[in-house]
Amino acid sequence: MLAASGLHKTYGQTTALDGADFSIHAGEVVAVMGPSGSGKSTLLHCLAGIVRPDSGSLTYQGAEIDLPDQRLSALRRAEFGFVFQFGQLVPELTCVENVALPLRLGGVRRKAAEAAASSWLERLEVDDVRDHRPGEVSGGQGQRVAVARALVTAPRVVFADEPTGALDSLNGERVMELLTEAARAAGTAVVLVTHENRVAAYSDREIVVRDGRCRDMERYA
Length: 221
Ligand code: ADP
Ligand code: MG
Fold this sequence. Notes:
Layout: E1 2-11, E2 14-24, E3 29-33, H1 40-47, E4 55-60, E5 63-64, H2 69-79, E6 80-83, H3 95-105, H4 110-123, H5 139-151, E7 157-161, H6 169-186, E8 189-193, E9 205-210, E10 213-216
Parallel strand pairs: 3-8, 3-9, 6-7, 7-8
Antiparallel strand pairs: 1-2, 1-4, 4-5, 9-10
Helix pairs in contact: 3-4, 3-5, 4-5, 5-6
């Protein structure tokens, strides 16, 4: 569904991507692992159309993505969801308003948007903090809210960059479990950059990024 080949990206003297190839099928959960600085975030940003690679090609549902920016941001909003290490919730809005926000930006009325947001908060087991602001909830709760916000628009792909990096391992695993379960139920593909070592339990496939290149990791049962 989404494929990249030969991605190169340099920042000044630094080579972040050095001929990276990547692909993900509809509904698939792919874990992206690798040492710090190996290019994982850059790969994710290129795949999501946030960063334009210096060279290489990107196809989404069979069509090359090299769109003018405006169409690319429309595609991003309609088809992609994002979760970052720190949820990046809007501090002035309550949790339910945060989750409803992508729908509101897409023109959905408040009542309908908040109803959908509420049901996602329930699925992520954080409906008890729906009327709290992000500053009043724990890190784990905040990340669940961020996951709900990423999934509320029923995206085709969710990009998650170390979404559990700031959590203790118990909370981290639970967030990963909820994210991947919810995505699977919705048929959403997930590109998940993670350090969680039990990632195999949640993903269909693991790839390792090293020196700006991707390598499929063999599964040993
Ligand atoms: P990872 O997510 O695996 O830690 P990154 O993709 O963030 O790796 O970074 C890969 C390399 O590119 C690193 O050496 C990093 O310092 C560099 N890099 C990433 N983004 C930028 C940027 N915006 N400006 C300069 N250098 C960057
Ligand atoms: Mg990173």
